[in-house]
Amino acid sequence: MKKEDSPRKVPRQKMPEQAPEKRRKNFEEVTLGFSPEMAVMEASRCLECKKPLCVEGCPVGVPIPEFINLIKNKDFSGAVRRIRAKNALPAICGRVCPQENQCEGKCILGKKGESVSIGGLERFLADFERQSGNIELPKKDKSTGSRIAVVGSGPAGLTVAGDLSVKGHDVTMFEAFHKTGGVLVYGIPEFRLPKSIVEAEVGLIEDLGVKIECNTVIGLTSSIDELFEEGFDAVFVAVGAGLPKFMEIPGENLVGVCSANEYLTRTNLMKAYDPNYDTPAPSGKNVVVLGAGNVAMDAARTAMRLGAESVKIVYRRSMAEMPARKEEIHHAEQEGIEFVLLTAPSKFVGNKDGFLSGMECIKMELSEPDESGRRKPVPVKNSEYIIECDLAVIAVGSGANPILAKKEPGIALSKYGYIIADQATGKTSKKAVWAGGDIVTGQATVIEAMGAGRRAADSIDEYLSGGDF
Ligand SMILES: Cc1cc2nc3c(=O)[nH]c(=O)nc-3n(C[C@H](O)[C@H](O)[C@H](O)COP(=O)(O)OP(=O)(O)OC[C@H]3O[C@@H](n4cnc5c(N)ncnc54)[C@H](O)[C@@H]3O)c2cc1C
């Protein structure tokens, strides 16, 4: 190889995107994906490490160097088959996984320059496969006759359902909403993850033989014991962490203050953004979003697209401590979202009719790092001021989804209401009941929920093949 062809010399390919001035007014996807030429060029950057650390960074163990090598040889179908053997949701993971903290975070090229765009390549392959219409699903084992109920259809539930179906079991997935996908459909907006992509990947899980029953709230419609009475042999609980948290400050009951969960669900799942639907959505000209995680970025960028004149993210720490993905922060800045940092809300103020008119804030400064290394925000005396706003969206985290967990006394919960489950297997304190995803860990990531689903599927399969619980 000539020196100028060395993988280290090829720059990381920049994925094409819609221009910020255009996309801040529409809900179409922001990033547009690699062309085949760009994908081959990006794949050529891989150093083919003898000990590939990227694989260690992937909770579902995708054979990353193998699929990248197949892209180099333009064998896109072979490459996507390698991914599918380990990951049933590649078009989703390629779009929303925080790769910078996982596979790409471990890539050797990233130590001195820019890591290989593993997520971009995964997305390219999944899109290539879907557009070609030539999808090869994993081969199914012969039927075992065992029946499994999966409660919740987010990434954890979908992974368990797909894996167990491939192992020959008869799987039924129950979902409270009228649509499957969990946060993938009701939380993450269309401009980051189009619903059609989720529908296509869920459709492939159905093609594996998984039955889906929507509009069914386990814990209300039927209990877990009733599922066993109906003939299920094992139950996997993946109900997520969708309970909104509030700020507990005065004025939170004013019209115009809402949780990010409600705001995003109305916009996404109930199509409030589509003028053909008459879903009422909280709307505002001057919007403040409280928090700085992915949820806050999604709410702020949604508000901009719904026609706000100004959108501010108010966060009590500095830019460096923001928990959202770097890419989301960058996209939000490009779209005109303002960041009001080192600032905490102290109360909401309203007009005589009970509508929000402003938010009182106090400036903060960061303390010296404590024993954990984290710098605490401390209020600056007499620094209160008012930000005028007519919509405030609270995105400061969420808690355990309580409906099922609280109704099942046999399942041990942590003091915060999360289900206690074994990390390696997902087993709970109730016989033949497993749990995984956000309802066990608290809000985490898509790929971590999928990893928990994969481990639980192996454990359920072992139990159904005659193992102990
Ligand atoms: C707005 C937002 C943006 C995010 N962005 C990212 C991102 O960019 N990248 C990333 O990796 N992660 C992101 N996350 C986090 C990620 O989506 C979650 O960690 C992941 O979806 C958790 O998967 P899960 O299967 O545990 O639960 P969920 O996706 O929450 O799915 C749980 C499902 O269970 C259903 N359910 C609840 N109770 C019952 C019941 N009693 N009976 C039947 N069904 C029930 C719910 O309706 C839901 O469909 C984001 C989260 C949010 C809210």
Q: Describe it for me?
A:
With 469 residues, the chain is an alpha/beta fold. 34% of the residues lie in helices and 16% in strands. It has 19 helices and 16 strands. The strands form four sheets. It has a five-stranded parallel beta sheet. Strands 6-14-7-8-9 form a five-stranded parallel beta sheet. Strands 10, 11, 12 and 13 form a four-stranded antiparallel beta sheet that branches. Strand 11 and strand 12 form a beta hairpin. Helix 4 runs antiparallel to helix 5 and helix 6 runs antiparallel to helix 9. The protein is globular, with a radius of gyration of 23 Å. It starts with 19 loop residues before the first helix and ends in a 5-residue tail after the last helix. The mean pLDDT is 94. Flavin-adenine dinucleotide binds next to helix 10, helix 15, helix 17 and helix 19.
SS content category: alpha/beta
Average pLDDT across residues? 94
Rg (CA only): 23 Å
For this structure, the quaternary state is single chain
Bound ligands, named by name, code or SMILES:
flavin-adenine dinucleotide
> Termini distance?
55 Å
Low-confidence stretches: none
Q: Describe the biggest sheet?
A: 5 strands, parallel
Helix content: 25-40%
Write down the overall geometry: globular
Number of strands: 16
Order of strands across the biggest sheet? Answer: 3-2-1-4-16
Roughly what fraction of the amino acids lie in strands? 15-25%
Summarize the structure.
This protein is an alpha/beta fold. It has 19 helices and 16 strands. A 5-stranded parallel β-sheet has the order 3-2-1-4-16. The chain has a 5-stranded parallel β-sheet with strand order 6-14-7-8-9.
